[in-house]
Amino acid sequence: MSKTIRLTAAQALVRWLGAQHNAEGDRFIPGIWAIFGHGNVAGLGEALHRAQHGDLCATPFPTWRGQNEQTMAHAAIAFAKGRARRQAMAVTSSIGPGATNLVTAAALAHVNRLPLLIIAGDVFANRRPDPVLQQVEDFDDGTVSANDCFRPVVRYFDRITRPEQLLSALPRALRVMTDPANCGPVCLSFCQDVQAEAYDWPEDFFAPRTWHIRRPAPDARELEEVAGMIAHAKRPVIICGGGVIYSGAEAALGDFANRHQIAVTETQAGKSALAQAHPMNFGAAGVDGSAAANAALAAADLVIGIGTRLQDFTTGSRSLFALDAKLVSINIQGYDAAKHGAISLVADALVALESLSAHLGDYRAKPDTDARATWLAAVDGKCGAPVAAGDLPNDAQVIGAVQAVATEASIAMCAAGTMPGALKLLWQPSAGGYHMEYGYSCMGYEIAGAMGLKLAQPAREVLCFVGDGSYMMANSELATAVMRRIPFTVILTDNRGYGCINRLQRGTGGVPFNNLYADCTVQDQPQIDYVAHAASMGAHAVKARDLAALKVEIIAARTRAIPTVIVIDTTAATGPGEGLEGAGHWWDVAVPEIGTTDRLRDAFETYITHAANVRQSN
Asked: Which residues pair with 304 in a beta bridge?
């Protein structure tokens, strides 16, 4: 008969998490972010307090306090992305608003295929005090709580209504988080009374376990078919997605592209898998794509997606590739591999690239490397353009200034607004020097994400680009980073509103309305002192009067052990690709069919023209 140990359910959960490791020997979940409330403070809070001192676990299991449940989870997600899914973090909340604050973050992790463990407090399993404070009641279903909101946005959901359910729920949770094909967020909806209940647990349940991330090899028939398609292609082009990075296939991709002379284009998630200096890196693909990359993709007779979801920004809303071009998708997830009617090669990216290269032998394509050189020269000119007297710098000029003082250790990161497209188009990263949350493009990710990224890669410099609109949505984790002495540099570009959507509004035939402060129905324009605001949370904050001052402040920030916030005024008038011939591509944003202005009618006619070029596929 096996030995048992008597613990509460919450104590058992923490003890078990502390014994789970990755292949490198690190804890797969190195700690937990927590905001306590009545749904988790008594049960899980007590267990986490014990774990701080190595009482429940072999070594201390840390708890970190944040300012908001959503931004705590953003930090955890950025950490997992920065660790290429080799580690993840847990986040716990109370019931009700604490839990539903996490739903947006869960969706972000789900879309981006990133691991996150959510331990959300829930109502009483015994229902004795119903309706408990913050309980959401369903008039027709007594089993429903607010936590059911998580079901569409997590990969695995489980409601823990008995302690012993953890014996199966916890291994299932880690199986999902370490599965390269099914990776995503997990929600354990932990009833608050159950957290405090004791149970006699088998001691071997807490034995240390190592979780290995598998590398599925390609099916022989699929491999032969795809290798044959590449061997017969005259103008093949690769689209590199985030799956290349999560596979650790960056070097293999670089070798494959060099050996076979196939141009590589990038998605937001795949950017910096190859350094911009790599001779086959043609830059960004799609709506926010480079002239070199989009010209290559438009002329390609074979498009090869590797580890990409082929999202609409990448494909130009399915209108970028030639109608007669063939499409191959190499992906570890069969769902993604079959998109757009692609010929699928379901496999780990690293294994697939090595296998394909062996089949292709001496095959070499002939990419237009002159187009690549022309594009990079145009970028240098755009980003290095002087600011005219009396004008504010645009986003491209800000990027150019930051790029000028960046190092091999710098990582540019962002999430929403104008900057993601501008950075994808214009930033020239070193290997691994780019971090973008653009699957969900969630405003408010940036500050917390920068903190999580710095925790994941402490030896690298994190340069966080954020617009004033996104900064206003969620900035409170600056205080957390100050408390924990986590340094990163924030470049806060102030264009006085939502400049990105203002341009989209005008570009689709509308008139400026409700985006820039100047176009809102208010009597007085807000006068927001971002420097004072950031400084009030303990960050080092400064206003850069011009691009030269911006460069000086970025260099100075490297000497500090706390976050630095550098505010610079920018213009909202121009987009990142304006003036760059061939940059960008059409994006399908529905335009009203009926309108009262010539501008709107013209926009609709343009929309119909572009929509006619969409590839009709699944």
From this structure: 238, 328
Place 522 in a pLDDT band, splitting at 50, 70 and 90.
confident
pLDDT band at 617 (very low <50, low <70, confident <90, very high): low
Instruction: Give CA 528 to chain center in angstroms.
Output: 28
Do 54 and 199 belong together in one domain? yes
What stretches of 86-148 adopt beta strand conformation (E)? 90-93, 116-122
**Is residue 435 a part of any domain in this protein?**
yes
Provide mean pLDDT across the span 505-519: 87
- Sequence-ordered alpha helix ranges (H) in 211-288: 220-231, 242-247, 250-260
Dist CA 507 CA 518 (whole Å): 18
Spatial distance between the Cα atoms of 449 and 455, rounded to a whole number of angstroms? 10
Are 187 and 276 members of one domain? Answer: no
Domain that holds residue 51: 4-211
- Examine the domain organization and report whether 207 and 225 are in the same domain: no
On the question of pLDDT at 616 being above 80, the answer is no
Whether residue 81 sits in one domain with residue 187: yes
* Nearest residue to 142 (alpha-carbon basis) of 156, 166, 155, 161: 161
Mark whether 154 and 227 lie in a shared domain.
no
Residues 6+ apart with CB under 8 A from 77: 105, 108, 109, 112, 114, 116, 437, 449, 452
pLDDT of 561: 98
With contact defined as beta carbons under 8 Å apart, do 213 and 181 qualify? no
Work out how many domains the chain is built from and give that number: 3
- Residue 138 is given by DSSP the state P
Residue 378 lies in a domain: no
**336: domain CATH number?**
3.40.50.1220
Is residue 536, in this structure, part of any structural domain at all?
yes
> What CATH code is carried by the domain that includes residue 123?
3.40.50.970
Q: What is the pLDDT of residue 426?
A: 97
Taking CA atoms, 73 is separated from 116, 194, 539, in Å, by: 8, 24, 21
- Whether the Cβ atoms of residue 9 and residue 191 lie closer than 8 Å to each other: no
Residue 439 maps to a domain: yes
pLDDT at 99 over 80: yes
pLDDT tens, position by position, 447-478: 999 999 999 999 999 999 999 999 999 999 99
pLDDT at 518: 86
pLDDT interval class at 595 (50, 70, 90): confident
Distance (Å) of CA 587 to CA 316, 340, 590: 6, 17, 9
Query: Residue 615's pLDDT is what?
Result: 82
Percent of the residues in the chain that have a pLDDT greater than 70, as a whole number: 100
Helix, strand, coil in percent for the chain, rounding step 5: 40, 15, 45
Residue 64 identity: W
**Could you tell me the end-to-end alpha-carbon distance of the chain, in angstroms, rounded to an integer?**
55
**Same structural domain for residues 111 and 48?**
yes
C-alpha angle 450/452/456, rounded to 5°? 110
350-361 core/surface letters (b: 16 or more CB in 10 A; e: else): bbbbebbbeebe
**pLDDT tens track for 536-566:** 999 999 999 999 999 999 999 999 999 999 9
